[in-house]
Amino acid sequence: MPSFDIVSEVDIQEVRNAVDQAKREVSTRFDFKGTKCSFELNDTEVTLKGQQEFQLQQMLDILRQKMVKRKVDLACMDIRDPETTLNAATQTVLIRQGIEADTARKMVKLIKGAKLKVQAQIQGDQVRVTGKNRDDLQQVIALFREAEFDLPLKYINFRD
User: Fold this and answer.
1) Where along the chain do the CATH 3.30.70.990 domains lie?
2) Neighbouring-strand partners of residue 59
């Protein structure tokens, strides 16, 4: 039986490259000269540090530009509120990986509501869709491309 998996993955190496490029740009820009602005990447969390909140917004724009150039989907970014003190400001950006259980249930409900002849199973942080022919599976992919999920979805392991 043909099947495929719906996943939400981000290439962490591309995120690392985008953060490195953003670091270089901040170090060379005139409006950041003499400031203690920096980016830190820990696993799937990017920490922006600056002296004021408006600098964090500029740094976030730079990071977004670099991620778009590296073809990283911006929907994977979960931007937290900035924390400011008198002389420092920090902001965290989480890089989301995988599909959460609630979102996976919504996906399965969407597939069942479309009345297609396919079955959907939640397997960890991905959803597996199986059907009797390829056309039904392609209809599921078209359905998900039209649907509004707050994740960058990829369709992998397409098997006949």
Assistant:
1) 12-95
2) none
Measured over the CA atoms of residue 12, residue 123, residue 155 and residue 152, the dihedral's sign is negative
For residue 70, give the amino acid letter. R
> What tens digit of pLDDT does each residue of 64-123 get?
999 999 999 898 899 999 999 888 999 999 999 888 888 899 999 998 888 888 998 998
Q: How far apart are CA 43 and CA 51, in angstroms?
A: 24
Phi, psi (deg, nearest 5) at residue 39: -115, 140
Specify the CATH architecture of the domain 12-95: 2-Layer Sandwich (3.30)
Quick check: helix, strand or coil at residue 157?
A: strand
State whether CATH 1.25.40.20 applies to domain 3-8+99-159: no
